[in-house]
Amino acid sequence: MAREKSVNEARFLEIREQLSKAEHATKEVPLSSISVDEKSMRKGQILVGGTPITVNSYFFVRLASMLKLSTGLTHELLKNNDDKLAMHLINGLKDYRSSTKGGNVLLIANPNTKEIVDICEPSKYRKLSNETVFDLTSRILNDHSNMIIESVDVDHRGRASINLLNNDEVGFANAGADEFFKFGFSIVQTSRDTYVEMYNQRLVCTNGLRASLGQGAIGGNRDIQFQETFKLQGHSAEDVKIFLNHIEQMKKANFVPTSFEATLMSAVNTKASLVEVQDALITAQRMVREPDENMKKAYLDTLDRKWFPGHADAMARIVKKGIDPTKLSEKQKSFIKSNMSVWDVVNSMTFLGSNNTGIPLDSKESLKATAGSLFGKGTKSGYDLQFAEFASL
Amino acid sequence: MIEIKGGKKEQIVREWFNNHKEGLVPAKTKVLDLFQEFGAEERDEDISYGLFNGVLKKIMGEGHVGASPAAAKRDSVETKIMTVEDMTFPDFTLHKTKKKVDELFSDHEVGGGLYGGTVTIVIGESGVGKSTVLLDVLASIKDANPDAKVLYVSSEMTKNDIGFYYKKTPAIGKVPTLLLMEHVKDGTIDIALEKEFNAGHDIILLDSYQDVVVKLKEALNWKSTKAESWLTNMMIEAAEKNGAAVLAIQHMTKGGQYVGSTYLKHATTAMMEMMFDITGQRYIEFSKNRRGGSGVGKRLYFKLDEKGNVVYDASRYEETKSLMAIEEKETIRQADLNKKFEDMFLNGKKDVTDDSVEEPVEKEGDE
To answer: How far apart are CA A3 and CA A7, in angstroms?
Structure first.
């Protein structure tokens, strides 16, 4: 995991070089050249044109998804090392071959681990190379002198996001004296896609938040309508033009989503439910990378007590009422309030994702994205307790 | 020559070979073809295929066998092989309009321009502004270099038409113009064209190729193929020998396809297209250009302002160029990623062939 703050030009070029070298390799092959057998899962290996090639476990999830097998079932079988998954994949491949009459697939490999990590139909691979994304970023910076690269996030899977901010500060006094932000966008590179998403930074603690508040106008200009998360559709000049035009549209509104202030007010004024704070805690805890079990436990406890105290507080209240918290359904937990606001939970996640807290966390980029998903929930389905004044437990 | 002997019919056959085949039976030629050629002439005697064949064999037996027609033709043609250094060329003068369109005409020198010694076919939709843009090109070249000799050849417009056009498009006022309609009337259209195409003009705009072909046919009673090849050869010679830059407007089908001769299409230096895009905006795009490959496929948008001036959208063109450069680089980078995969897993092997597919496995519930 690497994280860069306020990236200068020399560092930008250095990161570009690193990411170009780490770029996932790709190869289009006939589907019929791929062979999976009963031992593939255990060996972490498939045959491509007769050559044994190492794959990671995520590959099988992606393969299952391409074959339209149940994702839940795949995860379950994979977790249990169940041989039935191999059988499902073998039969799925056969069905897929007959329904698509052969055709090609694209294999995506991580050069660092020398494993295949993804598989998809060639038309679904719309990612620009990292080098080209860096070229585009330079171009955007040249065109918009008021923008800076706030940070670059890279995770161990090769996902990267370049986070750009407009230097103008925007305050939301109604939500609190500290609520000043800078707005911008992230260019996100996954193994098969390139997309832009709204990005902002809370100035008081320089927390970065990647959030999509759904389709809508931004910046108060209701003539500017578009998806706040926008995926590149291909590699042609026309596709790149549309992608850049989308960023231009965002720029016209200074990258400030119309619904941001209202969402912020709701997040500040709504208590997070137990399930919301628990999900955030689990997300952060999953990212702890520490080989020493005792140290790891200490880090997990720190996250629980210091960063998401609402979780322990709610659990204590549940136990005090004589209820076994392990027997509560997700639905029931969504009606139990914590002593943290949604905004507190979001800020804990973004702080962990944006700053060095001493806890070794992997994939900070996805902490920002998860925080963004929770924040954006306010404009979509609503927070669990947004309209639940009666929730008392 | 073949000796004339035998019966009357045999003598006729022998004489025919002397008169039409220089006393030789051409090798590798079908007897039936020769007989049909022989039979095409009217004569009193009825000579059968069997008799003809018999006499032919006798003549061949006497040693009168010649080269095949193809070989004979090949022998008669003198090929001229020389190094490029020894060839002579006209001056490849570079004519500049000092407008953005120069970059589409060529890319060998900074800023581009229209080279002498070239033939450019211009196709475009009706009403898109082909004549207006090209007349603007001529007027701009003349503005930039008053010594440039330009000529506009119009086959469609009368004097009054061009007068009206001039009011709408004053920029054409100083462009020397030949109105071919005058020469259609008195049947001197070919002479007028030949004279002007060899008069040392630097740039000649022919408006339009197809209409001139029609007028040549009508005024001189020529066949289409003759009119087309005559005009095409004259244009090519004006470029090749005289160093002129010839711009010829050509019609296109409703579907947007070129309708001229294939010979012309392949003999030309460049193919310039003027179109409306789906939003109704006008643009120029080269689909072929031997003087400027980098401009091919890139759209230069233009507008015709109220004074009839052609206004090019230079910034949009630059944007297109830079986006296409991104696309080109990305294509190379994606190919590199492919190579990286092959090196990593397949020992550099490019092609992956079918593997023996896994053993059949019965689905759950299959019995």
So the answer is: 10
Distance from CA of B281 to the nearest CA of A (A): 17
Q: Which of A26, A33, A132 sits opposite B352 (nearest CB)?
A: A33
The string of pLDDT tens digits covering residues A25-51 is 999 999 888 888 888 888 889 999 888
Report pLDDT digits (tens) over B124-137.
Answer: 988 899 999 999 99
Domain check: are B300 and B322 in the same one? no
| Contact flag A237-B334 (C-beta cutoff 8 Å) | no
C-alpha B283/C-alpha B273 separation (Å) is 8
How many distinct structural domains can be found in chain B? 3
Residues of chain A with pLDDT > 70, as a percent, come to 90
**B54 and B152 belong to one structural domain:** no
Check CB contact of B341 with chain A, cutoff 8 Å: yes
Looking at the fold, whether B127 and B226 belong to one and the same domain comes out as yes
Mean pLDDT of A148-155: 86
> Which of B324, B356, B361 has its CB closest to that of A90?
B361
Confidence of residue A227 (pLDDT cuts 50, 70, 90): low
Q: Determine the pLDDT at residue A3.
A: 44
Q: How far is the C-alpha of B158 from the C-alpha of B365, rounded, in Å?
A: 86
Cβ-based contacts of B320 with chain A (< 8 Å): 237
Q: Are residues B16 and B142 in the same domain?
A: no
Q: How confident is the model at residue A392 (pLDDT cuts 50, 70, 90)?
A: low
Residue A175 is classified by DSSP as G
Q: Which two tokens stand for residue B358?
A: 């896994």
Distance of CA B43 to the CA centre of its chain: 46
Nearest alpha-carbon partner for B360 in A107, A62, A35, A46 = A35
Residue B68 is encoded by which pair of tokens? 């095949």
Same domain, B110 and B236: yes
Instruction: Out of A25, A47, A111, name the one closest to residue B355 (CB).
Output: A47
Under a CB-based contact definition with an 8 Å cutoff, are residues A284 and A349 in contact? Answer: yes
B306 interfacial to chain A (CB closer than 8 Å): no
User: Domain limits at B264?
Assistant: 94-312
pTM of the model: 0.67
CATH for B123: 3.40.50.300
Looking at the structure, do residues B56 and B203 belong to the same domain, yes or no? no
B78 occurs within a structural domain: no
Tell me how close the Cα of A141 comes to any Cα of chain B, in angstroms. 16
B203 with B336, same domain: the answer is no
Q: pLDDT tens, A194-221?
A: 999 888 787 766 666 666 554 433 443 4
Q: How far is A383 from A253, CA to CA, in rounded Å?
A: 26
- What are the residue boundaries of the structural domains of chain A, listed by start? 9-18+128-257, 25-124, 265-392
